[in-house]
Amino acid sequence: LPKLLSFLSSPGSLLAILVSSLFVFESCVGMYFPTIGTLRSKYFPDSHRSVVMNLFGIPLNAMVVTVFLSIEKLGTQGALGVSTTALALATLCGLKLKKLVNDEGAESK
Fold first, then answer.
1. How far is CA 32 from CA 9, 25, 28, 36, in A?
2. Helix 71-108 and helix 46-69: axis angle, to 10°?
3. Do 86 and 78 contact (CB within 8 A), yes or no?
4. How many Cα atoms sit within 13 Å of 97 on the Cβ side?
């Protein structure tokens, strides 16, 4: 175990870990945007897509501005807490939406 820890603390291995992490992040982002674009085109008709996306952007922009203006009071930890809370709420809403869609699909069969 000490040899492993000493290997991970060498500058070369830290750079390798950082570069690997960057590649994983870029791969995730590279898959996310085309997937979301496909889902948008599947579930939102072209006539409503811009309106829906703009309506979803309003609360997001309001939250970003609010956190930015109160960053001195919140601090880094508070700002990350707001982000974590928003992601948790989005996850719960997504799970609820998935359940509604599954229930609707079961009723139509």
1. 32, 10, 6, 6
2. 150
3. no
4. 6
The Cα–Cα gap between 28 and 83 comes to: 19
Rounded to the nearest angstrom, the gap between the alpha carbon of residue 83 and the centroid of all alpha carbons in its chain is 10
Question: How do residues 40-73 score in pLDDT, each as one tens digit?
Answer: 888 888 888 889 889 988 988 998 999 999 999 9
Q: Which residue has the tokens 């970003």?
A: 64
Whole-angstrom CA distances from 81 to 29, 68, 69, 71, 77 are 23, 13, 15, 12, 6
In terms of DSSP H, where are the helices of 9-70? 11-43, 46-69
pLDDT at 4 over 80: no
What is the DSSP secondary structure assignment for residue 109, as one 8-state letter?
Answer: -
- How confident is the model over 31-41, as pLDDT tens digits? 988 998 898 88
